[in-house]
Every structure is written in C-alpha cells, then in structure tokens.
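Appendix B. One record, verbatim.
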Amino acid sequence: MTRALFIIDVQNDFTEGGALAVAGGGAVASAVTELLAAHPNAYDVVFASRDWHDADSDNAGHFAAAGEPDFSTTWPVHCVAGTPGADYHAALLLPEETIHIRKGQGSPGYSIFDGVSEGGDKTGELLIANGVTDVDVVGLATDYCVRASVVDALEHGQHVRVLTDLVAGVTAETSEAALAEMAHLGAALATSDVVE
C-alpha cells in the first residue's frame, strides 16, 4: 500500500480575510501542519493543490463577469496566479518534496485532477507513477473542491479517506451533504487520529 495526502486549496483567498473565506480555514492550515509534523512518515507522497486562475479572463465563466456572483457556479475574483491570495496560508508548512498542483488556469478547476504539477504532469499520472493506492484528503472547501477531488480520486480507483476534522466548508448544510455523498460513493469518513 502506498498512501498519499491530498491537501486541497489551503490558500489565503479561502481562509479568513480572503476573497472567498471559509470559516475555520486558518485552523485547517495549522492542523494539517501539526499532522505532518506529528506523522512525518505517514505519507509516501504529499500533493498540495492551489487554484491558480488567469488574471486576464473570467476563467470559462468561473469569475462573475457582470452582476453578482451566484456563489454556486460563478464567484468573485479569487486566487489569481501570482497574487498573495493564491499563496498557501502562512500556517501551512509543507514538506520539501511536496508535489504542487495548479488548477483552474482558464477554467473553473475544482478538482485536484483538473490541475497539473509544475512539470506539467496530471494528478492521475502522478498517482500511477508513484504507485499510490490510498489517499487521505484534507483542505478547503468541503462542499466544493474537496468534494470534487474525492469523487475524482474514487473514479481513479483510489481508496479514499476524508479526514473530517481537517476540512472546512462554505456552509454546514452543503458540507454535510457533500460528506454524505462522498461516503455513499465509497470514501471513508474518519478523523486524523487514524493517521499513524
């Protein structure tokens, strides 16, 4: 068994004070750092994704171009490539060998599987190359990018655990629904105390 950790979108724009702040986002950043420090050998591979949207387009309708965003399929401008909002939260300390995935370049890009590494490799290809069979998922937001990443990981044949104390969502209702959907599709819901 080769286990990977997916750290989804723990970025300034998705944490307190950001353009699309998720309540508890900063706490998730700190808790993920604590997990990695307490269990440095728990994961064979660590992936960290970031929204990395183009500044000069609406990213295929992802940014509300006119009028108010609907906060479902259109959003305020956020996580523009190279801006402080797209940076990882300061409390998130990643291992040196982390594989960084950028997604949403000219597209919505909710799932980590929608992105590519700095070398241009797709997430699915990297899982195969590293022999990954099991994935733990943490990050932001439970009801959007975490959900999309979990669904895609399951479709790629991974055994998936969602560490429910290391995710935070936009609303309690939609987060609960997303967790129920992920469990129904085959993901295990657990807390970080299962990590060894």
